[in-house]
Amino acid sequence: xFSTPPAxxxxxxxxxxxxLAYTDAKxxxxxxxxxxxxxxxxxxxxxxxxxxxxxxxxxxxxxxxNRVHAEVRAAFANTLFRERLETLGxxxxxxxxxEFKQFVSAEIRKYAEIVRLANIQxx
Length: 123
Fold this sequence. Notes:
The protein is mainly alpha-helical. About 45% of the residues lie in helices and about 0% in strands.
């Protein structure tokens, strides 16, 4: 199965699951012994399939977006909070709003191409 680290990390640590590979470009810091897909013999397979983000309604004033971003960055600067997220398998990023918007747009394009190549039709 494919899953994200936060969803399975505790099961891995307890020995109830065994990870064969991690599909991102580099090894996950909470799973240093798990090879990347490239290291496991699949050099063209790379997929970071899970992320979380905060969204606001279209037209939200930039000063509000910047304030929310500043609060997120402040939370990520809190050592206990950051360590808790990392323990759960998350990698806190906290991109600025414009950078996150570009990331989301790239993700939409990537998944649209997968849907196109697989000829997936809406049902």
